Amino acid sequence: MKYISTRGEMPKISFKDTVFEGLAPDGGLIVPEKVPKLSEKEIEELRKLNYQELALKIFKYYVSDIEEKDLKEIIEKAYKTFRVKDITPVVKVGDIYILELFHGPTWAFKDIALQFLGVLFEKLLLETNKKINILGATSGDTGSAAIYGVRGKKNIAIFILHPYKKVSEVQALMMTTVTDPNVYNIAIEGTFDDCQAIVKSLFMDLEFKRKYRLTTVNSINWARIMAQMVYYFWAYFRVSEKEKCESIRISVPTGNFGDIFAGYLTKIMLGEKRIERLILATNENDILCRFVNNGDYSVRKVKPTISPSMDIQVASNFERYIYYFYHEDAKKTKEIMEKFAKEKAIKFSEEEVKRVQKDFLSASVNEEETLETIKEFYKETGYILDPHTAVGVKAGLKFKDKYPLICLATAHPAKFPETVSKALGFSIKLPEEIEKLYKLPQKFEILPKDVEKVKAFISEKAI
Ligand SMILES: *Cc1c(COP(=O)(O)O)cnc(C)c1O
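^ thats the input. predicted complex w/ pyridoxal-5'-phosphate below
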């Protein structure tokens, strides 16, 4: 399998070459040349596999330049850090299914992709004797997943900026208690926007970027999308078996359109009917919901909410969907995305909206509804939802009909204890592993919001 750009102006590259790439050089996103549609027989064979075996089979459709035994080893190693045998168990709660994606080291779904990416990075870097320095900024939730992905890995150092004292205690501890020598937590005396601005300006400094081989692990990375497809297959098999049915629906709390794009590709691979529709759930940052319901993809101001990992306006993976939506027409994709960059809005026709709605349903869920859902769901079932998962559950229930409903649980409630406790009216009990973090030694550097100071720090520590 070769890879191409959604804007059509990049020569074909191999899977290995996609692993360290963010954007394609023509400004597009990297996609596989072809998304295979599986036969009935192929699908039934996948059904019998355990999580790691399933991952191997799916990856093999997309990876032709890594030997099977190596790929197998990478997968095994990546998922050893998970606390449960099934990696992403599906549990029936009330009359819906919850796909629990939070059993990795940082208790949220990004571990599924980043644990894999970290092992893959190390393997490929050792093969070519190269080194990289990963740089990123976090508002709290996602930095830890990147750190845990690469902690202790050879030929990799990671620098993660977070706003000092402006992330929740649990989230800060999840990062700063990682004391591996290749991990650098930088607490910036400023806001998350300051952190992002510093990271951006370091990446724009091409000489600095080249000299230290700066790399990102953001959500447009193809290998991350690929790793996320596995649990859609997994959940489809578990629930269709239990319900003895062919078609199901899946509700996905969405921010950057990464997770749900993996679901969309799975829908294509499984044939149109099996995943009847994906339910795109947003919080009050509802650009994607407006797109599905009215064809209005126009940027508004980001509103901070209690589901912060979905506080996104411009969804970085949206271009990939546009590409497939226009039947892999790179010229059209380029035109539309360039227009969007200028006008900050795309308006889709009624006919186009109808076509979108063949694959997606969508609802936006506000903060009040999110808190209410956490409370009511607990009252009815005894199951505690995190705020992101609650957005997905609420949206899913709005469309509940004859199709079995799977809701993706993207984080464990203990990652957002303040919000969840507020909704429930009592303090939730933290898992022992998280309690323990409070007693561990920490390692972080406090720096002013000054690009030059950060630059000097990285220059000193980079590998
Ligand atoms: C990142 C994240 C999301 C959104 O995922 P996207 O791939 O950006 O759509 C939802 N919930 C949690 C807890 C997350 O960390």
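The chain has a mean pLDDT of 95.
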